[in-house]
Hints:
Elements: E1 2-3, H1 6-26, E2 32-38, H2 42-58, E3 61-67, H3 73-85, E4 91-94, H4 104-110, H5 122-129, H6 139-150, E5 159-163, H7 170-178, E6 187-191, H8 198-202, E7 207-210, E8 228-231, E9 235-238, E10 246-249, H9 254-257, E11 263-264, H10 272-291
Parallel strand pairs: 1-11, 2-3, 2-4, 5-6, 5-7, 7-8, 8-11
Antiparallel strand pairs: 9-10
Bound molecules: nicotinamide-adenine-dinucleotide (NAD).
Amino acid sequence: MQLIDGKQIALQVHAETRSAVQALKARGIVPGLAVVLVGDDPASRSYVRSKDKMSHELGIHSAKHELPATTTQEELIALVEKLNADPAIHGILVQSPPPPHIDEAAVIRAIDPRKDVDGFHPVNVAKLALDDPSGFVPCTPLGCQRLLLASGIDPAGKHAVVIGRSMIVGKPMALLLMAKGKGGDATVTVVHSRSRNLAELTRQADILVAAIGRPGFVKAGHVREGAVVIDVGINRVEDPTAAKGYRIVGDVAFEEVAPKCSAITPVPGGVGPMTIAMLMANTVKACRQISGV
Ligand code: NAD
């Protein structure tokens, strides 16, 4: 059984990003990423902090905007429009989820699609469906694809089953795996909360991607012998023995599933580190496209 080391593969992506940033700087261009946080959700705050820190480490200009939970939709969109027009900024990310009085879809639509490094704008969703490589693909599924390729697992011709149909993970993951070319060419099945005979379908998977949001949902009975399992889940479960009172587990019951797999990602240390790595890579891509280099 191969344990897919997301930390190590993320370091490879960071090394590529760092050298791309240096090459841009040699031409007088500094990639810039703006991260916007509304409110004080602790998990969101910690994601924003890591994105800011990673930008600094890679030489990317980082603009962190922390707005109070009382920020109105108009104020938030006004900030997005200011960032759209700012030549020092190539990537814009509004941390999800915003407070309930904000219409997240409207905010995403306000982002210039050329700066939408999260890949959530309708233009980028369409570009993914159209196999247009100039678009931005959501960072988590892009990271999962990269994990497969870096581990020598070619999805071509294989049966990939994706559990979950969210716009952030499941749906773009399915599109990536079925796209023509490297990292794609798989036969894809998507299963979700309304699927019948779920375990029967997941047991057919050569590659099983779990993006459900339920701790330990995928059991040994869901997985065929020799399958590759990518666990996207990040779930907090109470653990009085842990310093913080909780620990992070995936959507896969690792202990019972791992022995059946040819390869599997751990949680933490699998998909998680790839998401931020692909965000940084997307920022460099946006910078190159906007600067025309
Ligand atoms: P979501 O809640 O938007 O979607 C979950 C999907 O799972 C839905 O499409 C639903 O149909 C499906 N589902 C729910 N219950 C099910 C059931 N009983 N049987 C079958 N399918 C079921 O969640 P999301 O944003 O796609 O995130 C999924 C998981 O991935 C979460 O644990 C989240 O924390 C994690 N996540 C991790 C990263 C990362 O960086 N590693 C990034 C994004 C999300």
